[in-house]
Amino acid sequence: MGRYLLRRLLQFVPVFLGTTFIVYTLVWAVPGDPFAGKCGERQCPDTFVSLMTERYGLNDPLVVQYFTYLGKVLTGNLGETFSGVSISEQLLNSAPITVRLAIVALLIQIVIGVVAGVVTGIRGRGYLDNLVLVSTLFLISLPTFVTGSVLQILLGVEWGIIDPTVSAQATWGELIVPGFVLGSISMAYVTRLTRTSITENKHADYVRTAIAKGQPGRRVVFVHLLRNSAIPVVTFLGTDLGSLMGGAIVTEGVFNINGIGGLIFRNIAEKEGVMVTTIVTLLVLVYLLMSLIVDLLYAVLDPRIRYD
Amino acid sequence: MGSKAVALTAAPLTIALVLTGCGGGGGGAPAGNATADATISIYGTNPPGNMLPANATDAGSAKMQEGLYSQLVGYGADDGRPFDQVAESITSADKKVYNVKLRKGWKFHDGTEVKAKNFVDAWNWGAYGPNAQLSATWFKQIDGFDDVYTKDPDGASGPQKPPTPASKTMKGLKVIGDHEFEITLKAPFSVFTTVIGYTPFAPLPDKFFADPEAFAKNPIGNGPLKFVSFTPNVEIRMTRNDEFPLDQKKVKFRNLVIKIYSQQEAAYKDLLSGQLDFIETLPPSAKAGGKYKTELGDRLLTAKLLSISTLTVPSYLPEYGSLDLRKAIALAVNRDQITKTVLADTYVPADGWVNDNIEGYEKGVCGEFCEYDPAKAKEYYARSGHSGKITIQSNSDGGRKEPLEAACNSIKNAIGVECTFVGATNFGEFRNIIDGSKLTGLGRSDWGADYAEIENFLNPLHRTGGSSNDSKTSNPQLDALLAQADATADRAEAIRLYQQAHRLLPTYFPSIPLWMERGVGARSDNLATATMSFKRRLEYASVTVKGNG
Questions:
Q1: Burial of B479 by CB count in 10 Å (0-12 exposed, 13-18 middle, 19+ buried)?
Q2: 3-state secondary structure of B290
Q3: Looking at the complex, does the CB of residue A141 fall below 8 Å from at least one CB of chain B?
Q4: Which PANTHER family match (chain A) (predicted)?
């Protein structure tokens, strides 16, 4: 187990180097000039453009720029954006909010999704099952933007139950509605995934054996059935956390949340190469870490799986 | 099935509702308090620059700059007319040498007095090339500017750097005493007293020169609002300067929060629910079908914006060289219909190249050519000998695309020539195309005046080498008239000459006038009064908050 973990962690290094390089190159491959349009309808003074180009080393060959960047990252100094604002400060402001939002979304997915899936999976065909199938279909077909705007207008503007946007502090309470919006589509998938998995395993040999042994129904469901049915759901949830963090651009925009998604979006538009590379790399690391955790969870959920 | 679906989606929603009942809150303005203790919040965007006065050219930083600094002259809220602010008097006999006397006892927020050297040093610093301020060229009229600001010999993208300037100070600026200085211009410039109310002409305290970079993070000004804090992507906080000496611009509320939004839609919804007190622009969804009129009611604010929207005709494209073609296009755009439908009455048709709120505006300079007439358009088009298609270029974001597509359709239907809209992804990219003379057809050219003078609609836009002469057109006759007007000391006479220059434009159509924006914004129910200025900003001094509402 220890060696397996070490091997997986070591794999992070080449992936880190590869993604940073690819992202860095791609950001600068996008056409456009980071200093255009900064002076309104006027052309910017040459002196400004020259000084900025020199200060940020934009005249150096790409490889040189990349290694300068890498050196800075490894010494823990991310530098500043073109407007002179510290990158690490912006990241530290946004990251906790995004993490909170993702956790809220994930919790909503797990609580509502798994419960609905288990209940319908065990009960099988019937009124409730149809209801859940229809409503999940409904949620999946709605784009996040629509869910978000509708909830914002109804709850925020019309009924005044919540503020239409999230404040700078972005407290847990404020993030419940955005979290629901962000997690709604995945929640529907989790429901369906759990339901299918449960229905499938309901008739498996080990469940029949457990029942035949005379175990109480609750033990059969929670210890045997649910645990074994959880593998596809856990896989889904693990990778979903990554996409919840990076893919929240729409939700963050609707509710004006100062999170990672919006930060990437703005910085791509402003061609802040260092910022984009840093955030994307962070997200890649989150993905890697999550898939590692998921893999380790397999061994916990299914005793037949061993790593050594 | 329909009712089931509704019932089930309602279930998780109800849970969310119950859960958020205890959350939320936070932010917003206290409605019950009187103005003196009120905190108001206004819509903002993330400032892209470092927010020194000579570097702040965007709307996001301008909102802060306006509260933070007071220049020699201020602009009236309604018409933008300049009045003496920090200056006690500005006198000039020949409009070339200006003598400025300052009011005594005007203090920066750190308690030091605003003296003549604070202006002179700040201007010199802003103009000095190696300091690379975005607004450096605003000082170009001052004598000695060329000694402190050198051009890059091979353009910004070339490998060579601009030579180090010979001097750090402009010889045209001379401190006479603590409260008096003299400005000498390169050539007479009659509206210079208006120009110096613009942001880059702010004074800077002694502290700035010790460490400009630290200062930029914690700026100290002399204006009606003091800087408190800036959290990137979140907000800028300011508070009232109780020592501010001038009633006309003194603010009555206590705190100002400039909330930063990534989307106008979100800000607009905050405004509707009273979480935001002022927004100077409405999102496209609110404009659609004039929905904003019913949604806002008496909260709607309008401003006399000084703007003009035109289609620039690049002089470097021979296929657009024919004057008859330019006239045909001007005739073929149905301005009335487009401003009423697509632009939802937030614009009105233009009948010239100067905004109608400007002193010196004359009606109908563009004449019959700016009135929709498909028959005449066909006639002129036939005479022009043009063949092929017409294109209109612009950035497609921010609602720019729709009206221009409508214009294109109008041209297509009127003349029967193919017309297409060519989009650029964002403003920066589009400006790159214009600045690099890479337009392939007509280009969107919108102009908002920096200060309320007719001169500002002519010199930068149409004079040879003007800072926003997007068509790169050169007309010696116009240049001569403008130079003569600039040098005329008598204001009325100068305006007459500018008008004469304006009337020259329909003889060669360097651009095709389309429409003029009527600024619409909104205030929240918390505010009793609020005025939107000609620069499309909240006039801070005009704000009063409803008491015990």
A1: middle
A2: helix
A3: no
A4: DIPEPTIDE TRANSPORT SYSTEM PERMEASE PROTEIN DPPB-RELATED, DIPEPTIDE-TRANSPORT INTEGRAL MEMBRANE PROTEIN ABC TRANSPORTER DPPB-RELATED
Do A134 and B137 lie within an 8 Å CB cutoff?
A: no
Any domain includes B225? no
Q: Dmax of chain A from CA atoms? A: 84
C-beta separation of B31 from B549 below 8 A: yes
Cα angle B323, B327, B328 (rounded to 5 degrees) comes to 115
Decide if A176 touches B, using CB distance below 8 A: yes
Are B186 and B261 part of one and the same domain? no
- In chain A, the N- to C-terminal Cα span, in Å, equals 5
User: What domain range is B67 assigned to?
Assistant: 59-217
Please name the residue of chain B whose CA is at the shortest distance from the CA of residue A90: B232
The beta-carbon neighbor of A255 closest among B137, B234, B266 is B266
Q: How confident is the model at residue A37 (pLDDT cuts 50, 70, 90)?
A: low
Tell me which residue of A89, A38, A34 sits closest to A278, measured CA to CA.
A89
Note whether B340 and B461 are same-domain residues.
yes
Could you tell me which of B466, B467, B427, B464 has the C-alpha nearest to residue B443?
Answer: B427
Q: Does B443 share its domain with B501? A: yes
User: For the segment A226-281, what is each residue's pLDDT rounded down to a tens digit?
Assistant: 888 888 888 888 888 877 877 688 888 888 888 888 888 888 777 777 888 888 88
Residues B455 and B375 placed together within one structural domain of the fold: yes
Its CATH architecture, for the domain A91-269, is Orthogonal Bundle (1.10)
Check if B154 contacts A (Cβ < 8 Å).
no
Q: Which of B4, B16, B48 sits opposite A177 (nearest CB)?
A: B16
B366: CATH: 3.10.105.10
The mean per-residue pLDDT over the stretch B238-248 comes to 93
**Which 3 state secondary structure label does DSSP give B444?**
strand
Same domain, B529 and B513: no
pLDDT tens digits for range B156-170: 666 667 788 889 999
Sign of CA dihedral B262, B259, B427, A146: positive
| Rounded distance between C-alpha atoms, residue B64 and residue B420, angstroms | 40
Residue B312 and residue B293 share a domain: no
Question: What's the confidence (pLDDT) of residue A41?
Answer: 65
CA distances from A64 to A5, A25, B72 (A): 34, 12, 48
State whether B164 and B90 are in the same domain: yes
**Which residue shows structure tokens 């009105």?**
B348
Split into its structural domains, chain B has a count of 3
Same domain, B101 and B188: yes
CATH of residue B29: 3.40.190.10
Q: Within 10 A of A252 (CB to CB), how many other CB atoms are there?
A: 28
Let me know: does A194 contact A117? Beta carbons within 8 Å. yes
Of all helices (H) and strands (E), which one includes residue A88? Answer: helix A87-108
What CATH number should be reported for the domain holding residue B134?
A: 3.90.76.10
Determine phi and psi for A31, rounding to 5 degrees: -70, 155
pLDDT of residue B207: 93
Query: Is residue B24 in some structural domain?
Result: yes
Taking CA atoms, A170 is separated from A165, B440, B444, in Å, by 10, 47, 40
> Is the CB of A46 less than 8 angstroms away from the CB of B467?
no
Q: Inter-chain contact B161–A173, Cβ cutoff 8 Å?
A: no
Interface confidence (ipTM) of the complex:
0.77
User: Considering B186, B217, B248, which residue would you say is the last residue of a domain?
Assistant: B217
